[in-house]
Amino acid sequence: MPTLSVIVPFHNVQQYAEDALRGLARNATPTTEFVLVDDCSTDATGEIIDRWLPALPGATLIRHETNRGIARSRNSGIDAAGGRYLTFLDGDDWYAPGYLAELVRAIEEYDCDFVRTDHVQSTGKKREIRRAPGPRGTVRDPRALIGPPAATSMVDYPFVWAGIYRRHLFDDGRMRFAEDLRTAEDRLWTWRLHLTAASCAVAGLLGVFYRRGVPTSLTRIPDARQLDFIAAHDRLLAEVAADPEADRFLPKAVRTYCAMIAFHLANQRRYEAPVAGELRKRAGEALRNMPQDLLDRTLAGMDPERAGVLRRARRARR
């Protein structure tokens, strides 16, 4: 059994695939397994992967015959992975040499269900360190790191690839990614992780490089797929409401959802008119479906500009 399985989805990232694969090769060990998922790329990505396979001993290559999205690609990798621990990398990001060995060392030292890490954000030639917003050097209950509502916490750090996870978390299917979500699947997954796992830690490791502003990223595409954040957060609210500690976590879930709605409404001009109209309609419905007393308290604690945007959206009806 490999110690670590690294799951890497690729889709039309020919400009960046070499960097990702080179980083994997520089981290290859006899106990590291690479699970590469080519999600029906139509550019040269598949050819680039083929060229690099000899440099990745023990790698598994999965090819989707149709484009199935990032969630299905990660799930395909999870299904094929054989390691005691799992981690993820996107096909347009990359690792520093030796990073994966440090990652395994961290989770074995902490002896917990998962470890989250810092990362380096790469925008063109600019590099910025992004810190995981959690306490360092101690094993904690993941639920303790969800709140408070108005503060940035670990559920606001939805970078799936900035961490390492014990295999057993995925065995019952709960930690599979929601395949019907084309975006925001990572935010729902991060909440589920903190509600499901028994223990976690934050390690100050730097070695995963996140490439921001990639033109092909779904976060940069102004079409209806962006609206999946609404379905993701509707599902999140329903799951939190059903949790035995719903009263404890609903204020944070509602605050997070409101912040996402306000962000998208503030940027609605980037969408085509029909999509912007659908955004306004569904945002209003989402706000009216929230627990109204809790929503009122949430809006009272937000800055006046964002709260005003949300109040107007709640009042508007079509």
In short, what is this structure?
Helices cover 40% and strands 16% of the residues.
Q: Any chance you could write out the topology, listing elements then pairs?
A:
Elements: E1 4-10, H1 17-25, E2 32-38, H2 45-52, E3 60-63, H3 69-80, E4 85-88, E5 94-95, H4 99-110, E6 114-117, E7 119-123, E8 126-130, E9 163-166, H5 185-196, E10 200-203, E11 208-211, H6 228-241, H7 246-266, H8 273-289, H9 292-300, H10 304-315
Parallel strand pairs: 1-2, 1-4, 2-3, 6-10, 7-11
Antiparallel strand pairs: 4-9, 5-11, 6-9, 7-8
Helix pairs in contact: 1-2, 5-6, 6-7, 7-8, 7-9, 7-10, 8-10
**Strand order of the biggest β-sheet:** 3-2-1-4-9-6-10
Helix-strand category: alpha/beta
Q: Whole-Å distance between the termini?
A: 57 Å
Largest β sheet strand count, sense and barrel closure: 7 strands, mixed
Give the CATH architecture of the largest domain. Alpha-Beta Complex
By CATH reckoning, the class of the largest domain would read Alpha Beta
Listing every helix as H and every strand as E from the N terminus to the C terminus, the arrangement reads EHEHEHEEHEEEEHEEHHHHH
| Model regions low in confidence, pLDDT < 50 over at least 5 residues | none
User: How many domains?
Assistant: 2
CATH superfamily of the largest domain: Spore Coat Polysaccharide Biosynthesis Protein SpsA, Chain A
The name of the CATH topology of the largest domain is Spore Coat Polysaccharide Biosynthesis Protein SpsA, Chain A
The Rg value, from CA coordinates, equals 20 Å
Mean pLDDT figure: 95
Q: Tell me the number of helical segments per DSSP (H or I, 4 or more residues long).
A: 10
Shape: globular
